[in-house]
Amino acid sequence: MAVSGVRDLFGVIRSIGGPKEALLRIFRIAALMPGKFVGKDAIGNEYYENNSRIFSRNRFVLYKDFWDFEGTQVAPEWHPWLHYMTDDVPTSSNTPKQGWQLEHSVQLLKDNRDYVPYSTTKPKVEAWSPKQ
């Protein structure tokens, strides 16, 4: 049993692309998840599927930016597939762009274009400032 487990581990490492890619994947998603390459979006993210894993853990994305990634980097056409709203892999023919849709923009948290809410009402309590 132990020999087959080691053999399976080396098979997973080989299917991912070698030891270097395996270590990068451990750092990226904290798991050695082999998967079938499904597609790539315009940003450069790669989408994978592994049907041997349990449902809701078998689809995943490897973001293009290794160190700085977040959920808004998932392209809108890939969002339904990644969240199991559809089983159809997005292509240009099955995801037509509507006239009212804007281009996808990544909303990084440390961006200068962040939404900052502000109040238009007068505060009920004034902040105390000590006399100098």
If you had to describe this structure to a student in words, what would you say it looks like?
- With 132 residues, the protein is of the alpha+beta class.
- The model has no long low-confidence stretch (mean pLDDT 79).
- It has a three-stranded antiparallel β-sheet with strand order 1-2-3, with helices on one face.
- The chain is extended and about 75 Å long.
- Helices cover 23% and strands 10% of the residues.
- The chain has helices at residues 2-16, 19-29, 79-82; strands at 36-40, 46-49, 59-62.
- The protein has three helices and three strands; from the N terminus they run ααβββα.
- A hairpin with a 5-residue loop joins β1 and β2.
Could you give the distance between the termini?
76 Å
Question: Sheet with the most strands?
Answer: 3 strands, antiparallel
Overall pLDDT: 79
Which value, in Å, is the CA radius of gyration?
22 Å
- SSE string, helix = H, strand = E? HHEEEH
**Low-pLDDT stretches:** none
- How much strand content do the residues show? 5-15%
Number of strands: 3
Relative helix content = 10-25%
Structural class: alpha+beta
Q: Note the quaternary state here.
A: single chain
Q: How many DSSP helices?
A: 3
Strand order of the biggest β-sheet = 1-2-3
Overall 3D shape: extended
Short key terms for the protein model shown above:
three-stranded antiparallel beta sheet; extended; alpha+beta; 132 residues; 3 helices
Topology overview:
Layout: H1 2-16, H2 19-29, E1 36-40, E2 46-49, E3 59-62, H3 79-82
Summarize the structure.
The chain is 23% helix and 10% strand.
